[in-house]
Sequence to fold (607 residues):
Amino acid sequence: MKNNNKYIDELIQKHNFDKTKLLKILLEIQENSEQNYVSKEDIINLSEKLKVPLSQIHEVTTFFSAINTEPKGKYIIQLCDSTVCRLSKNYIAKDELEKELNIEMGGTTKDNLFTLEYVACFGACDRAPAMRIGKKVYGNLDKEKISKIINELRGDLNE
Amino acid sequence: MNKTVSFVTDNFNKYDGLNIKKYIEIGGFSGLKKLIEKGPDFVISELKETGLRGRGGAAYPTWKKWDMGKKRIAKDKYILCNADEGEPGTFKDRELLDKDPYSVLEGMIIAGITIGSVKGYIYIREEYPNIQDKVAKCIENARNEGVLGESVLGTDYSFDIELYTGAGAYICGEGSALIESMEGKSGRPRNKPPRIGTKGFMQVPTMVNNVETFSYVTAILRYGSEEYANYGTSESKGTKLISLSGNIKNPGMYEVPFGVTFYDVIYTIGGGMKSDSPFKFLQLGGVSGPIMQKYILNTPITYENTSAYGLPIGSGAITVGDETNNVVEFLLGVQKFFVHESCGKCTPCREGNIQLKQLLLKLNDGTITEEEVIRIERISNTMKIASLCGLGQTAPTAILSVIRYFTNDVYKKVGFHVDFDGDLVKHYLENMKIDMSQIKLKYTEFEY
Ligand code: SF4
Ligand code: FES
Fold:
């Protein structure tokens, strides 16, 4: 936790103690956390150092979908469930992902490696059905593609 | 007539979207140079000449907005580029920022110098992290090249651009909600007045335009308003970016001249349906737009036509569904989206969307009563009239279009039939005309 403290100090400094950079700072904290979330301690810490009321940060973290306040898996697999992906039968991808990971939509694998969740459209509708893992978008999903992607991610972890 | 054209997309694939030297080599910043040479009034008159309208959805004339921005007397003014593209089925801003980001930045500089602002912001949605990285690099390159900074291209004008990012909220596409989120607050629309043109980011007058609008300004200044007017119809000059998606053979972003028909877009450009199943419906302008039957296919896409038919072009999204889909199920997807994205600030939208979802579920499993079908309409109308911002006002558009005109899908399961009319198409158009014009009025009011 101590390390984290220092990390937040540096982050705030990098953003010149600018309160309007709150979203960016929160997203960066999340990106650098092991489990893709902003912890209570982080929020308290940030509130003191950036001099933004705790209530405001709490409101912001709960308002925005991209910020998690609960721990998630190392990889968050985000399957689009908006109109175009639904037209393109995204439920096939959902079933395959659930089978492949052995969890239900919304769940996290026991080893904390994968979280599977539905998200709203992220603008890859020309490649529907699509999913997002971190910065990467995978489109035109079918069963083969999905099992290949998951296997590759698992492979990364074993290296 | 050519079905697809390249006016605003002319630079696509001529450079990698990063190399600023190459952008200059292919004519980059010549629009900006024209402004420096001929002055701000020239820009406004060129824009007026073209009739260019905002491409974020509200379709407000760009020259009017800029003229007002220019005439506003204030110590500081900001330019804001709205790249929070969140409308399902829309991905044109993503393409523009990926393939020709400098044209967007150039448009922002042109806006800044025109209205007398020295600072611009670009707000890019969280869902486009690679685009954020790219634009950040482009801003850096532009500074190094002397295009941004203290002295723009060696003149006395100064202008700089800063990048902000969203965090996954559709409502932040609404200008005042976007600004709230930039200020480190949750992104809920502000009560108006004051409009953001008067009191925007940090209370400073802020002129917001969409990514596509900025890119068009750059192209219009570069090639001239006359060249732009070579495309399109007399009332809707020029071209438009269309995001085509759904059960279609060639989904993608296309630039088309105004005046092509939906048929052209779907069949000639999009290659028709992906499977053997025939066309069933299209949704225009993303989830907040109406769902139309095949009767619409022969209609030319122009502002005058679509508003006469009560169809807002909106962001230019066209999502196509084939016969294998049940429209009510499709609507459930639309409604799930709105329930999730309503910011909760006002009651008609917050509660209305939840109620509509419950009623739709009943409609879908066939347990709805006649009275409840009528209630759908009542709730929808209340939302249209009483919601605080465009989200709540447009959320029920799709539902209303479906319960009236996709009668087979809607009433097949329930065993009764609420008969709205014999002549479906005519009735539909008449109804939508009245309804949508009311909505449009609201848009104009809330534009600033
Ligand atoms: S209409 Fe909906 S999104 Fe807009 S302010 Fe009201 S609750 Fe929020
Ligand atoms: S609807 Fe799925 S990415 Fe847009």
Chain B is about 45% helix and 10% strand. The pocket of FE2/S2 (inorganic) cluster (ligand 2) is lined by residues A 80, 82-85, 121-125, 128, 130; B 88 (CB under 6 Å).
